[in-house]
User: Which sequence fits this backbone?
């Protein structure tokens, strides 16, 4: 029931009309994809937005040749490269599945058409954009003002299975520390 999952998530943001739901259902496509599948690669233009029904995903880029993990996604979240998708410019990030996943995808053109026809589509987009902005601000604040242990605890609370899904160096990259520092911190936390 991936479409029902999507409608529950969107319906929690705002009530949805039957007309909107019918149009949305016609526009989304269900994909079953393998682990390590890239939903987006540099320098593509993002022409799809995704709803992660089941699975796990991450966004990363390369800085001075090093992978920098920027975001993780879990079940029930909308995956999109905001700037590339809405401005239709080449992306600077990769979006990769870290587990076998089921996603609903919708094209850029379908999103634009839904926004032109349905006021609730505009409202949903504004709320989703606002949440992305808030998440980005919280991440920057966390990196600058919270100790690594607090960032690690928050990460494992939000994504309880993350250590089984992604390599430790990806977690360290997300936390902004070296893999060796992550290992030391985890040993220290477990020795308490």
Assistant:
């Amino acid at each position: 029931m991936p479409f029902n999952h999507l409608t529950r998530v969107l319906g929690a943001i705002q009530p949805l009309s039957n007309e909107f739901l019918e149009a949305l259902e016609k526009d989304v496509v269900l994909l079953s994809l393998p682990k390590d599948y890239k939903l987006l690669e540099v320098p593509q233009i993002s022409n799809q937005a995704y709803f992660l029904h089941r699975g796990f995903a991450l966004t990363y880029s390369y800085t001075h040749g090093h992978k920098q993990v920027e975001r993780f996604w879990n079940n029930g979240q909308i995956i999109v490269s905001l700037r590339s998708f809405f401005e239709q410019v080449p992306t600077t990030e990769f979006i990769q599945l870290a587990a076998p996943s089921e996603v609903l995808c919708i094209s850029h053109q379908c999103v634009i058409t839904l926004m032109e026809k349905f006021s609730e589509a505009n409202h949903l987009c504004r709320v989703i954009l606002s949440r992305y902005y808030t998440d980005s601000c919280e991440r920057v604040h966390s990196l600058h003002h919270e100790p690594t242990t607090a960032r690690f605890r928050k990460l494992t609370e939000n994504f309880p299975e993350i250590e089984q899904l992604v390599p430790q160096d990806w977690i360290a990259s997300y936390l902004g520390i070296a893999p060796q520092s992550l290992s030391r911190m985890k040993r220290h936390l477990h020795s308490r």
